[in-house]
Design brief:
This protein is of the alpha+beta class. It folds into two domains: 1-73, no CATH class; 75-114, no CATH class. It is built from five helices and four strands; from the N terminus they run ββαααααββ. It has helices at 27-31, 34-37, 53-56, 60-63, 77-94; strands at 2-4, 22-24, 95-99, 107-111. It has a two-stranded antiparallel ribbon. Strand 3 and strand 4 (107-111) form a beta hairpin.
């Protein structure tokens, strides 16, 4: 993600930046920010999203930027989302999902007969 300052008084993390200064912040840096995501920010923990993105971080609008923001949103976002939905549909069609007899959220997955 890149931005430039609009006036001579633009500040980023404290230092004074001259007008027109070009800043580049890698999205992966934002997604690993301990201040926004907590002490486990650098760990793979899908369970942090069990209550949604808004509950997972302090500033969900600015901290979870998969495809960019506003006018600079990735052109491939819609295609990527359609591909994921298609993949899920194919997986659901080819496999049979049943709850485990021991209950819980465990699933027993078996290949559907073709």
């Amino acid at each position: 993600m890149s931005r430039s300052t609009r006036d001579a008084s633009g500040k980023a993390a404290g230092p004074q930046l001259p007008k027109g200064t070009y800043l580049f912040v890698p999205v992966s840096t934002i997604h690993h920010n301990v201040t926004a995501w907590g002490p486990t920010a650098r760990l793979f923990d899908p369970s942090r999203f069990q209550d949604g993105v808004a509950a997972a971080c302090k500033h969900p609008q600015a901290s979870f930027v998969l495809f960019g923001l506003s006018a600079r949103t990735c052109l491939g976002q819609n295609l990527a989302l359609v591909e994921v939905k298609t993949l899920v549909a194919v997986v659901l069609a080819r496999f049979e999902f049943t709850l485990s007899p021991e209950f819980g959220l465990r699933l027993r997955i078996s290949r559907s007969p073709s």
